[in-house]
Amino acid sequence: MPSASDPTRAHRLGGPLRAVAILALAAAVLSFPSWAPNPYILSAGVVVLNYAVLSTSWNFVGGFTGYISLGHGALAGLGGYATGLLVVRAGLPSFVALAAATLLVAAVAVPIGYAALRVRGASFVIVSIALVLILLLVAQSWASLTGGSRGLVVPRPFPGLLRPEHHRIFFYLFAALLALALLVWWLVDRSRFGLGLKAIREDEDKAESLGTPTFAYKLVVFVVSAGFTGLAGGLYALWFGDLDPVFQFSILTGSYLVLMALLGGVRQLFGPLVGALVVGVGLEYFKVEFGNTPLHLAATGLLLALVVLFMPDGVLPAVGALADRFLRPAQSSIREVTAAELREQRDTAPPGADRAADPPTELPVGAVDGRSGKEGP
Amino acid sequence: MPSGALLFQSVILGLLLGGLYALLAAGLTLYFGIMRVVMIAHSAFLILAAYLAWWSHARLGVDPLLSMVVTIPLFFGLGVLLQRLLLARLRPVTLTMMSVLLTFAIAVLIEGLLGYAFTGTQRRIQLGYGSASIGLFGARIAVVKLIAFGLAAVALLTLYLLLKRTRFGWALRATIQHPDAARLIGIDTDRIAGFGFGVGLATAAVGGTALALDTTIYPSLHWHWIGPLMAIIVVGGLGSVPGAAVAAMLLGLVQSLLQIPLGTTWAQTVFYLALFATLAFRPQGFFGGRLAQRF
């Protein structure tokens, strides 16, 4: 099975190239408010950033453990409604309410995760869909609390501000949240915890028998993911100011997030961000050009099916493979490294270097595998 | 305290509804048994069949029941194609997750196309016998509900006989129980799996026709069905047909009874509560065997 997280792939694209790309992306995002032609485009940018945060949050579960949740849209909606209700009904200051709502969503995720993650994948997906349906039902029916189908109006945190300024501030807030989510994802990716999660993705039985506390790991990462999702949802509520249960607890939002992450590549740090840029911009464009038609749905379904069938690893790995094909055409050997490269490695390696890097050609007599070679005194 | 007649009527209606749930859950169970696939699109196909029944009545003027002559073979063929052309292409390692996404995508696609072709307007079949009902110990039961239950019962019985009494049924059950062993004794498991999907989807054709008889339909209705159906197969134990049938009847009954004090909307929550309770306390479901342990 091709694995994007194997070390060879990271080297292929080249470190400097990667750094330049990241810097360019960051510069483009941060300067966007100053070159956005009008407030509408800026607000579309906020929406796309919101998708990027949500999709990156989704990727904590989807990317590391391979458990696919279709219910993250509902977790974001819960964060939004919790924030809105805490502001409207309890009279809390906006950002205190946001923090409380984030904790609330994370707390709600504990029992949900407990029920959904004790067994393997299928139940998790079922619970994630059920979560959307049940939250929609409650939000619509409990009208005395949530306002029901009439929606909930959330007062703005900065009342005196003009609309473009409002968009600009929230654009930067979402950008900061995105940076935080990416940073945490990156840290988890490099940690022992992340290693355990990826082991669950590759083979949960083996991971469990090797002593990984699979259930605890899955639960923790699900709660972290839910917390980020709730935070983004709450921030969206403060920005948009008007919550409608049909859009907040929509199965479609959840599927957009999956589509974005999958399209970009779930094993890549920037995969969901790239996917959100592509799908989010596409969504906004179609909304302007065609309005909300049922073909919206059909196109989403078709695109998702195509990605699942033909590009389950995402765009980034596909582009990487394409670049490899053109940039390094000489590498036609079926092996990862050629014999000449091996010899070169052996010659340049300092004596006493980790011999596990060598192929097991010079094993001491009686050694079973390459690893026993380095257990010398 | 509701009157006895009202309670009795609710019990009858609950059992009638439970029959339809049981048929549809049997289809879902079949897919899960064959390929470990949670088929999200099952209820979208259900609504598609309901729309075809409505369309044949409204546009062609034929009785909706006759539309099954076309929809059952059509859905069987679609099921075979779905399994052979799409699901069989997915990598085995990630099959469970990716198949969920793929069937989810198909569900959304169907919903979008239905909305495009028939608009989002709510549709209802106006039948000559639509308002007829019979009295039974003070309870009034609509004839169309009885017909719907009859359809579901006949289809379930046919499915049972098909699985237990025919060579195809034996081959299908062998494929479900142990695909490798089934291959060793000469069963073409790929073909059988395809046909199994066809049979599963044919249940959606029957169910959709039954549904169209007495329900107002609209493109996004399938979300109101997939939730309860998935709850039923989890409570019954993933992969167990009798478990799904018992859970379907039971939950249908409870839902119908809860409608008296709570109203239709809140009564739906019983499915989700049952789902969460089952997963939290008995994740393998109440009737599931070895298979359900790991999913």
From TrEMBL, chain A:
InterPro entries: ABC_transp_permease, LivM-like. It comes from the Bacteria. It is a multi-pass membrane protein. Residues 341-377 are annotated as: Disordered. It is found in: Cell membrane. The chain crosses the membrane at residues 17-35, 41-61, 68-88, 94-117, 124-143, 169-188, 215-239, 245-262, 269-286, 298-323. Keywords: Cell membrane, Membrane, Transmembrane, Transmembrane helix. Residues 348-360 have a biased composition (Low complexity). PANTHER family: HIGH-AFFINITY BRANCHED-CHAIN AMINO ACID TRANSPORT PROTEIN BRAE, HIGH-AFFINITY BRANCHED-CHAIN AMINO ACID TRANSPORT SYSTEM PERMEASE. This is Branched-chain amino acid ABC transporter permease.
From TrEMBL, chain B:
Pfam families: BPD_transp_2. It is a multi-pass membrane protein. It is found in: Cell membrane. The keyword Glycosyltransferase does not apply. The keyword Hydrolase does not apply. CDD domains: TM_PBP1_LivH_like (cd06582). The chain crosses the membrane at residues 6-30, 37-54, 66-87, 99-119, 139-163, 192-213, 225-253, 260-281. Keywords: Amino-acid transport, Cell membrane, Membrane, Transmembrane, Transmembrane helix, Transport. InterPro entries: ABC_transp_permease, BCAA_transport_permease. Belongs to the binding-protein-dependent transport system permease family. LivHM subfamily. This is Branched-chain amino acid ABC transporter permease.
